[in-house]
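Why this split exists: single-chain examples teach little about how molecules sit against one another. For that reason, every record in the complexes split bundles all components of an assembly together and asks for one structure covering all of them. Below is a record exactly as it appears in the raw files.
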Amino acid sequence: MAAITLTDIQKRYPDGFHAVKGVSLDIADGEFVILVGPSGCGKSTLLRMIVGLEDITDGELKIGGERVNEKAPRDRQLAMVFQNYALYPHLTVAENIAFPLRLTKGQFTEAQIREKVRFAAETLELQDHLERKPANLSGGQRQRVAMGRAIVRDARAFLFDEPLSNLDAKLRGQMRTEIARMQRRMGTTTVYVTHDQTEAMTLGDRVAVLRKGELQQVASPRALYEHPVNLFVAGFIGSPPMNFVPGELSGDTLRLPFAEVPLTDDLRRRIGSRQLVIVGIRPEHFEDGTVAQRQGRTGGVTFEADVDVTEWLGSDLFAYIPFETHESVRGKLEELDRDLDGEGLRTQLVVALASDSRVRDGDRA
Ligand code: ATP
């Protein structure tokens, strides 16, 4: 196992496209790090540079303290687990796991191969399936066979590139748990690429958020959620996404399109000398005023709004509330919104209410 250190890593493709722009990241030995970001942000490129499938244009990559920029993929001792698992359908589980060892042509005796396969199968709880063919395995078991092949090679780290993106939602959930469980059990350094924020939030010790080839923030899932460093991270992490609304300072209040919020010391400190700010409010930080009142909760800011549509999901009820932003404010906001290319400015609030809320489509609540 090994630490992976990226220092100012750059990638320019032959056509001149600058896909990765100075990424520095320290991945500790045994750590599980997720690379996440929208399509085209450079996360696969970064992973492929680590594994050696793509040249590094500039910067330094170290694995286990040693510079590996110039090393061939096979000499880096990393194991890439692909989306389709790349299992051989005509080979049994045991033969599939043993495959990389047989490729080394005589480096291992039959007894050594048997022992390595036994160890991997035990670690991955595949002992009872060793004689089966991949077609007779569940998706989760196939994933484990693919990991088994990485284990027998004594890989220093696992690299996953969107391994679950082809699966249906239910299987994806199961496999996610499985990967987390296996990684914790083996304690192998893991780098995992996804654009799925549920995977990002649930799997990793730390999450690295990329945008247009640049690292935005590297932090624990909780820290990303609670303390995003910019609008992009704030809007990318969280589902439904954080609401962004304009806030205008007016005396001792912050005027939102639908409510006036008294300025607390904390708000005042965060706003500083600005007159106009973008206010981020998580959907779950709203609640149904009627329910709050019934349960004796007071405080907070109360407002009335017309509910456009509701979605009842069993555990939550999402309500969509349109709001208007004055034209003059909109112009100034677009300047503040450089982080998001204008995408952050929404015209409706998404509000997550308790599932027993009685708010329905078309209500004034
Ligand atoms: P996705 O989630 O869609 O797979 P990604 O974040 O993994 O996206 P990459 O595959 O790393 O994105 O690609 C990053 C950028 O580099 C994209 O804009 C892509 O078009 C570009 N790119 C990838 N490969 C090449 C190439 N061989 N030549 C030129 N540009 C490339």
